[in-house]
Amino acid sequence: MSDPVRFHLVANAKYHDTNYARLQILTLLGEFPDVQTTVAQTFADTASLTDADVLITYTCDLRPSEEQQAHLRDFVIAGGKWIALHATNALLDMGPAGVKHAPGHDVFMDTLGSRFIAHPRIEPYTVTVADPTHPLVAGIDPFEATDELYLCHYHNDVHPLLETRFNGTFRSGYIDNEWPDDDPRLVAYLRPLGDGAVYYLTLGHCCGVHDMKPLQETAEVVRGSWDNPVFIELLRRSVRWAQGEL
């Protein structure tokens, strides 16, 4: 009998329907008989992370302490796999002029391989495969995503897997709203580090009626990519990759 593969899920995304996303992730993990999962709302449970083979994060504006940042980095360097979803790299400062990415947490961002800066309003956009030879995305045809299109600064030598295009100026409350260049905007990438790696997938926005408080009293229910079969296939592949099957 094979040993279990130990996953640790951290789910706590401000301005998102964390309960919905957590349920979808745990339901998907339940498809894999060898997977055992612990669940947390912060990065403080370093003991469970130390015991884990794989970390999954669905967070937004969740800021690890310096000690927790070092522990996350050591986990990957020692051979851990980290599946970072959607807004994990988004730390947000709110001010009278609008929303701006928070400075600092450099170890966290360097480990992830990117720092979220802004996104335009949610509209459909086309996602294409950047590396058709990689099993995480091989055979995936171009698809339309109705999700937040992440505009990021990238750290180190990340390996692009999925990408889209965007340039111009937009209005969505973010101060950094001018993106005139035509560089690819990565939708998924790999960030190798030591004996492990981070797989970052920016898709996965969801929101419930009350999740935008205090910015909005009520919000429209959004399920975004969670209703897209291609996104679910990408998640399944990420679990297989983390278990060493891809």
Offer a concise description of the structure.
The chain has one domain: Class I glutamine amidotransferase (GATase) domain (Rossmann fold, 3-Layer(aba) Sandwich), CATH 3.40.50.880.
What does this structure look like?
This protein is an alpha/beta fold and 246 residues long. The protein has one domain: Class I glutamine amidotransferase (GATase) domain (Rossmann fold), CATH 3.40.50.880. 21% of the residues lie in helices and 33% in strands. The protein contains five helices and 15 strands. It has helices at residues 18-29, 46-51, 66-77, 106-112, 229-242, and strands spanning 5-13, 35-40, 54-60, 81-85, 92-95, 98-101, 114-118, 123-129, 143-147, 151-154, 159-164, 168-169, 178-179, 185-193, 196-201. It has a nine-stranded mixed sheet, sandwiched between helices. A two-stranded antiparallel sheet has the order 5-6. The chain has a two-stranded antiparallel sheet with strand order 7-10. A hairpin with a 2-residue loop joins strand 14 (185-193) and strand 15 (196-201). It is globular, with a radius of gyration of 17 Å. The two termini are 21 Å apart. 37% of the residues are buried. The mean pLDDT is 95.
Strand order of the largest sheet: 2-1-3-4-15-14-11-8-9
* Global outline: globular
Order of helices and strands: EHEHEHEEEHEEEEEEEEEH
What portion of the residues fall into strands of 2 or more residues? 25-35%
| Helix amount | 10-25%
Low-confidence stretches: none
Main β-sheet, in a few words? 9 strands, mixed
C-alpha end-to-end distance: 21 Å
CATH arch. level architecture:
3-Layer(aba) Sandwich
Overall mean pLDDT = 95
| CATH topology (level 3) name | Rossmann fold
Count of DSSP H/I helices:
5
DSSP summary, beta strand count = 15
What structural category characterises the helix and strand content?
Answer: alpha/beta
The CATH class assignment is Alpha Beta
How many independent structural domains? 1
CATH homologous superfamily grouping: Class I glutamine amidotransferase (GATase) domain
What is the CA-atom radius of gyration, in angstroms?
17 Å
